[in-house]
Amino acid sequence: QTAESWASVQRNANKWDPRKVYITMPSLRRLTALSRWVLCRVVNGTGNNVNSLSQEDVDSLTLSEVCVIRSTLDLKAPSLSGINSFDEWNKKFERYLMHVRNEEDVPLFYVIRDDDLKPTGFTDLMEELVWTLPHNTDLATYRRDNNKLFQILMDVLSGNTNLMSFARADGAEQAHDGRKSYFSVRSCCVGID
Predict the structure, then answer these.
(1) pTM for the whole thing?
(2) Can you tell me whether residue 107 is helix, strand or coil?
């Protein structure tokens, strides 16, 4: 009977005029929370049972994950003046990337995260996403975010030709590989690969 009901829903959905279908804001928030949970736990995690979520779980996720007020300040990336100021700059840059979001509302910090520093537990789904999204150049979203990071780094380093040359080295410029550029600059400044 479930398959028949679903087939009926699909038949009726084909008759809908998309210009007349509206999703209320509470429903949109619930869908956002649910999709974030699926991305975290099913796509990038180890969970595989969406049926384990109750209505109350979705409501709780909506309140904790989606109804978060984010700052609308126009943030400016910190500039890196030289090798000696890298440690201080890096802390500011990581904080900056935690506030710069991609189209899916995930902080760009995930592109430069150091997997060796992965926390053992996560405070929320967004933090889990930041630490579990793959660095996979086969994924269009990662390529887009990696490219955006590359552009940010080019702006940040524009006044320093030495660091700019490290950021552009090893094919990073041709590939617009922000992760590679970042780690190349980090390696130059602190000797870490």
Answers:
(1) 0.70
(2) strand
